[in-house]
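ok trying this again, last paste got cut off
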Amino acid sequence: MQNGGPCLYLTYHPPDMKKKLLFVLAIACCSAAAHAQVNDDYWQKAGYLLKFSKNYFRSDPFAGEFSGFLKHLLNDPGITGRVVRKKTDTSLYVVHGIYTSYNPFFFKPKRVEVMLEETPVEYNDSLHTTDTIFTYQLMAYADDNGDGRREIIKEFEKIHRQVNRQLESNYKEVKEGTAVTAAVHNYFMPLYFLSPLSLAWGRLDTKQELVLNITLRIKVRANQTVLPAMQLGRHLLP
C-alpha cells in the first residue's frame, strides 16, 4: 500500500440480492485508499480512466450528465431482470441487472451483470467525516473449474497489464492454504485519496462460480460525474 497522507476506509452495506459479492469489496475495503502524489502526467491518467470507462461500461457515467447516464442504465433494452431499490431513510439507491448479450471481455462468460449502488464512506480523520459515493460494478461469471479459472485469471491479468501502464496500483489476495481464491488490484489517481478503479476476481462457493469484477468509484457534483475523495478541493473535469 502507498504511504503518505491520510487514509480512507470504505464501509460497504451490500443489498440482499448481492451478498455473494461481499468478498470483492471486503478486499477493497482493506486497501482502496491511498495518497497519490501530483505529477505531470495527471491529465494523461485522467484521460485514460475516462477511456477505460467508455470501453468497458455500456452505460458510461462520464459520457455526459449523470441524469442521462442513469436514464440510459434504467432503460437499456439490453438488460434483463432489472432490480431498482430507491433511496429511503434506511437504505441507499441500488440498480442491478443482467446483460442479455453485452460482453466487453475477451472470453465468453456465463453471464455479465451490472450494478450501481450508493455506498457510504468514512474518512479516517479526527472528525471521522462521512460521505456517500456510487460504486459502479461490472461482473463476469464463469464455472468454478479448470477452464473457468484459466479464463477468469487470464482476463484479470490482461486487464491489469493494460491499466497498469497508466495507473499505479496495490495488490491484495486471499488464500486458502497456499491456493489463491480471490485477488484485487486497486488503482490510484494523482490528487485523490480513494482508488477510483478496482479490478478483482474470486470464488463464489455458494454458486460454484468464479467472478471477475470491475468497480468504478464515482460521485455526482452539479449533475456531473467526478471522482470522490479529492485533495485540496480539486476535482476531475471529464
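PB: full thing came through this time. Confidence is low (pLDDT under 50) at residues 1-31, 232-238.
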